[in-house]
Amino acid sequence: MDKSEVIQQLEDTATLLALKENSSVFEARAYENAARALGTLNGDIEQLVSEGKLKGTPGLGPTLIKRIEEMVTTGRFSFLEELRASTPAVKIEMLRIPGMGPKRINTIYDQVHVNSIAELEQACKDNKIAVLPGFGKKTQDKILQGIAFMQEHANRFLYSVGEQEAEQIRTALAKLPQIVRLQVAGSLRRRRETVKDIDMVVSVADDAGSDVRNAIMDFFTSQPSVKAITGKGETKASVILSTGIAMDLRVVGDSQFPYTLHHFTGSREHHIPLRRRALSLNMTINDYGLFKVESGKEELVPCKDEKDIYAALGMEYIEPELREDTGEIEAAIHKQLPVLVQESDLRGVIHAHTTWSDGKNSLREMAEACMARGFSYVGITDHSKIAAYAGGLSEDDLRRQGEEIDRLNEEFAGRFRILKGTECDILRDGSLDFSDEALASLDFVIASIHSIFNLPPAEQTQRMIRAISNPYVDIIGHPTGRILLGREGYTLDMEAVIEAAAKHGTCIEINANPLRLDLDWRHLHRARDLGMKIPIGPDAHNLAGLDDMRYGIGVARKGWLRASDVLNTLETEPLLQFFHSRRSQKK
Fold first, then answer.
1. Quick check: 83 and 20 in contact, CB under 8 A?
2. Cα 565 to the center of its chain, rounded Å
3. What are the residue boundaries of the Helix-hairpin-helix DNA-binding motif class domain, all occurrences included (predicted)?
4. Overall fold of domain 1-87
5. Tens digit of each residue's pLDDT (9 = 90 or more) over 338-355
6. What share of the chain is helix, strand, coil (3-state, %, to 5)?
């Protein structure tokens, strides 16, 4: 397990302890503290364990250190496995309902005696939840809404979860000499924000026998992350992985590989107009090949790769991220597809938190980590004063943080630049949590909504537009506030928000945290066409969070963004000039 996995296991343990009858609140808190403590430590967890460097860390006692060592050395955590086995399944299921914590779950379980989500839903409809102490009709309605949300997103997984699982399998398979080509397909290759399953296609020599194909399938189905085999043959095997996500592996001859990869990459919506294009050229296309149809006979059109497939159809190559039937077919026919932004185009990080608010690492640590990743700058955006739950800064704190940034910038001169910023809360009426004088002292300002999500759509929209019109607001952060598979975003008129932002010269970020990926890719093309510059920000609260930038790149590519459309492809001085000139224009 890596550090993030260990932290997750500790947090899961704390949650299950809180669900356990007659458990000690102090024991659950110890695991919460241990997770936080581990998050503050730098370095590889395996090295920290092997060198005995966990000893003496505040929040990590001898028992917890032993359990962390067990996770790192064996890949298992027996105590957590025992807790899961002894916890009623319905309690664990209820944790997936937005807004349901251990205290409420225990009350419902003990007093209403539900044994399934279906029984909980019926209990809500029968008004049995509203009468419980501390609940009420409003809470009951929210539970019903949460159940509906959970059912809508059942059996879906974050892109980052699917990516991690797929990469483990891909790395293992890539070592097999009999495999010629190997590629992830499906919605994961198209970089959808959530995925239902994983598709992978591998090729072998065209003359490879069944023994070669069966050996690959045996190797695949025996991987450590495979928990169940649901199907296994010579050309396809299906499994369930450790996270619960399903995965299919297809093995084809190498000459068939491009067609099979293209077919199983999808999307279905992309393939329908593509097939119409093929028919207009007297061709047909499926997972076995692209065929020219003459006199009722089909003749295979040889293609070495997917680029050849599109070329044979008289089209530019369409990147997997764009295959969603959002205009890509017509653009490819007319050679009007954009050259999409790449991770290597990024020059810096905008949107990062430090120990000044709720981040886990210091200013210096965040800056040095960005330098190590090849970036030229980092925009620090700790929370504003109203966000007390996140250690929000007072205006005096903001000034003192600026002084620390000045000292570090003197030290880093010529090599790196720390930009002074804030993630300032947007208040209910659309005003900001810091004075204009405080905001004017910063290089840039991100404004975000972190509370009062349930305003009527019109009021929420006006709240956002008022913030957008503020001359000191450069960027709107995570504009819908959604948590993927966790909660819906607040309801507003996104078209009106985008138009207002473009009018006022305000940017809207792509929040690259895999739980958010907000602004949604479906809105990016419109924002781009209105001339908006769109920053990609990891919303990093620790060093590992900086690597979430790649998820933001996936969203940007799905939204048709070019390097010139992304704000932080600018070098440091042009970026600062951008903020200065836009602020002047807004005033």
1. yes
2. 21
3. 52-71, 92-111, 127-146
4. DNA polymerase; domain 1 (1.10.150)
5. 999 999 999 999 999 999
6. 50, 15, 35
